[in-house]
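Subject: Predicted fold for Nucleoporin Nup133/Nup155-like N-terminal domain-containing protein, 1331 residues

User T.R. writes:
Posting the sequence so we have a shared reference for the thread.
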Amino acid sequence: MVFQSSPGNVLAPTLQLAPAPSTAPVYLQLLKNEPCVYQTQVPNAASLSPVALGAAYVSKTIEVDSNSPQLYADQASFDKYNFLNQQLTGVSRFLKTRSVSLPDKLYEEFNSTEVSTKMGLFPEINRAWVIVDNKLNLWNYDEPAAASITSIDDIPYTILAVAVVTPKPRVFVADISHLLVVSTPIDIYIFLVKYSATTNAVEVFNAEMAVPAQGLAINRIVQHAATRDIYMAGEGDGCNVWRLEYSNKEDWFNSKCSKTCLTRLGFTGMVLPGGGMLKKIPGLHYLTADPQEIVATTSSETIIQMEIDQSRGILYTLSSLSIIRAYRLVDGKLGAKQTISPRAIINDLSTTIGNLHQIETLRANAFKLVGIHFVASQERGNLYLVAVTSFGLRIYINGSMFSTGLALKTARVKFPPSKTALHDDEKEYMRQLVHNQQHSTLLKNTKLTQMIAPGCFVAVKATKNYDKLFVSIPNYGFLKKTAEFLEDCEFLLDSGDLGSGCFINDVVVTQPFALESANVYASQYLHDSMEFAVLTNMGVNFFRYRTPDVVLQHALQAGPGPDHLQSFMELNGMEETCSSLLYLSCKIIGGGTGFESSTGRPTAAFRHQVQTLFATSGLNARMPVKALTATPFSRLPVPMASQAPQTVDQVILSDRFYGIVLLVSRLFREYWHQKVFVPLENIKLVLNGILKDSVKDDVVIKNLNTSLEQLEFFIGSILILLEFFERFGNSIPGLNAPQIVTDPFNAQSEVCIRAEHMALTALLKLLHSMKEALSFLMVLVEETRNNKPEHFKEILRFMSVQNQVNLLALTFRDFMAPAGDDVRNLIKDLLSAILNKNILKGGSIDLVATSLQEKCGSFCSSSDVVIFKAIEKLTKAKSIGDRDPELKVKNLTESVALFEQCSAALTLENIENATNIMLELDYHLGAVQFVLNAANKIDVGTDPKSLAKRSRLYRVIFHILTEVDGHVARAHDANDRARIAKYGALRESTYATAFAYPDEKFHAEFYDWFRDQGMADRFLDIDTDYILPYLEFRAKTDRELAELLWAYFAKRENHFEAAKILYSLAVSDFPIPLTSRIEYLSRANGFVNCVCPPHLRQQMVLLGGIVNELADVASIQLDALTTIESDDRISLSVKAAAIAALNRKVLSISEIFNAYVDPLGYYDLCLVIFKASDYKNTDDILKRWELLFEKVVADYRASPGASEPLHIILGSYFTSMGRKVADHELVFPIDELFKLLTKYVYGDGSGPAGCIVNMFVESGVGYDKLYYVLRDMVENSVECFPGYGQRLRDEMVYLIKQWVHGDKHLRGVVDVRGLEKYEIETDPIALYLGE
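User M.O. replies:
I've generated the structure tokens; pasting them so everyone works from the same file.
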């Protein structure tokens, strides 16, 4: 079950592993009706490591081998058969393995028969059953002696039928493995069976469980495996189906056994038997029966066969009138039903067979069904049932299920083969072939049939004196090679085998195929071959399916004659042939170790023949055939020219190579994608890991997902393969190193040879890697005393939970072909756990490590041994503790020295675990030195993994420093002077060691750690070669460190660099408010005015000018920002956007003017901008002054209750602006402004004389300058409005009086007491100056 949980509660694997295979059901994969192409190619093969390349080929071959074409052919004009008795191949597909005669005791029983005798097979308990009247005999056919017969003779009535079924759970004790159901005319009995597959012993117990038969005459009994429900039918009750029920409890109202009719309606389903008084009531049968069954049940129709499709949950019945009924099983009841009559079958077939009326075997009077067989969904999804006629015709019935419904329809018929001679002409040959098959009587009088998944058909043909056994089985190799359905057929038991008077009673499967798809060849090396038993009145005969290697072996041993090897190649393909030859060669070498030993000791000539055939068969590596085109002048196609360079990725490798990969993939296919380890029962799995809450005692793994025997088989198989290549590798093309070819005309051959050598080498390296990995698993099994969970726990407690989760994610492919260092380091961690367990128990490291090196050297190198010895020294130091400080330090020093000997092989876990022990023993300084040295020996380059490893080691150092700081802080808290001195000195030495480490990357992470600890202010006191580059680099992206950088320069009196950093902060993209930027500029301005070295003086001046100019702009931007914040005219959204834009970087002065100041009518700021930018367009400047005055006047007039007159308010605005811009003549043109002020102050007759002069004087304009401007205006005045000229003269009078009054010199020489009216001729100032 997979649970769901929040990501925070999930422990997920941290490994990058090979992608998982497709999880599509087999029958969905089978819909692709194409041949299996084993000539797989791996993209970018040259860039992969040898082990990764070999694993990729195996994975791809497993994928191809798992996708079989459709097993059952669709309707065709004729069916393809290969009649083996016609000696087309000369080799039977089945081998008769043994024949066991009936014991004499059973013959004696037969002779005493009074009523009836029946017999059959129970493969579930490895017994044959023989009924003689009311006595049931169970015969162990593996022990022919009479003592092997178990008799049940306490049944008082004649036995009609028997069946072995599986009991429902928790009804009986666990020892009861089966139930024996026995039907008699009076009662139906249930016996308890205890069967042991190990000892092949059977015990039968009478549980006193029976139910009255009430005339049903039950003779058909089947069981639904999913629910363990038992269904029955009897000759005495027509076509009704009953369910037999049982329990271990009995009371007044319920007995232990009961039965229920599932096909009748109403109350009669519980009590109405096949006979009895109720049946005699006229019309009652029609009231309680299914309306569709009324016609059928009026005749003497009974059920002759019952089958349950366990994969779909469908119950099929076949009646004596050849009517098929199908029921969906739902909760122990019969659901949707469909009836298929002979007429319906013939009508459906007439749509696909045009001449059906001419086929005698399909006419209604000859049509009789003798058997039905379901086809599991794994074999073909839409094919549900195969019905067999008495002429051996196989009728295929397709189906579909929807909701609770069921639909069945006849799809096609498969005719039996014909042995009639055929015409030589091709057209006449095909016509005769179709005609002969449609009219074949080869299987006439078929009485018994069996279907063995996948696709094997068995028929028993009755003759006058004996029975014949016909078997037809798909040629799986031909099917995978061509996607065409061909059946090999033959008579296994004929008159020569049985003799007159031998009759077949039963055919059962004793060993099924491992797979129910057409992928039989894929499992041939891992499972026993399919075997079926044939029970006759003389005994039991066993037949075993011959796998390709057995067929090939017998064909080669047959000696001269037909070319059996060529026939095998044509039927199965070259890859399959090479794979079988290699397996046969290894079988000869193995003699039973890993591979099945050959029958008899092969001769040297035969061994040489097999090995030579493997080395020479098939095509060598070659380039693919290019596309062909036809020229206008020739009918012959010519190869297309290609100028593209040829690479190893384009090469189609040799058939031998693909045969080797095929064999390896089939040996490991069932485990290749399986997980190596099994989680504990309490561990709750989620899609991407496990739930943290389900982990107990820090252990998540139960044991290995395999057994010792399986590991021994795998290792033995690999060793034999490696031995074969070691012995005969020189004779295999491409296995030796290729010679360099310089001939340009042989460039293609060179590429092919190189590709073949690369692929074969990769495969051999993969085999070595697999051997090492499996040997390590063998060690793990031994250490856990044959995979015991409690011993696994002793090892796993030395591993982190995260690494255990990583182990759970490993498949056997990941384990046997590690893709990177992550998996190898994980395995080494498991290896360390094994050694730690042994160290804890006092075991010898040398002994254990040496054993590991011998068995799996790649996982336990000499460096690993040194590491384990170093760990042992650490463990000793820890056990010594403070009892002997000198000895403790000695062991620690030796441990560090050992670690440094193999620093390149140290994993992060090794270093972290060793460091933790050193910290426990107060060996902080040694720990820092140890980790720094380990980091220093990592060759980083551009490898991201090495960089990550070094960074993680640096974090270990920081952890040590944190521990030291903690000791110092606790000593101060306790006010322990001795500890303060001790740990204070330790702190100084450890930090000094860290600061002295000559590595820029380390110092960068060191300073990052300082900052993360909130100690960035300490950077100002650090004096290393790395602190300044660090601050300069980090200052580009970190404001806090940028501020520290200018302080760092200022502390060292480097004012120019400090000013540069402050300026860069002021213009940076950091989210800094405008006021802070102005502050940076202010500080920078202060630094540029400080003393600096002579060679920097010019740069300092230049920087000062830039800073001042930017400060002016920033000040204007701040004014704009402040004004906008207080402007109620602007909407909140627009105001927020404007404030966000202005309160960040300093904008250009043009952007401030055009985007904000001018559009919003801030004319005072416009004038300030004109001054700052030295703007020279006087029209624009005067326009803004005029707009400013108009705005002031408009605001004044809009407020009629103003407390002050206009000239006061206007003067206030003017003097405020004048003080800012009066020193710029273009922005502050006195004459033009005087005219404007005169207009607004005196235009309506208000304002006292001299108020305008006061405005200018308060703005900072001198009397002398104002005098000459005003005098010029009086001389050249034009009446702008009535009284304009007089107003100018009045202002001039006021100006002269104020000037003289304020100037001590003029007051003594110029008399203005009588000056009331100004005239040019009488101007006292002019007269004094002599003008």
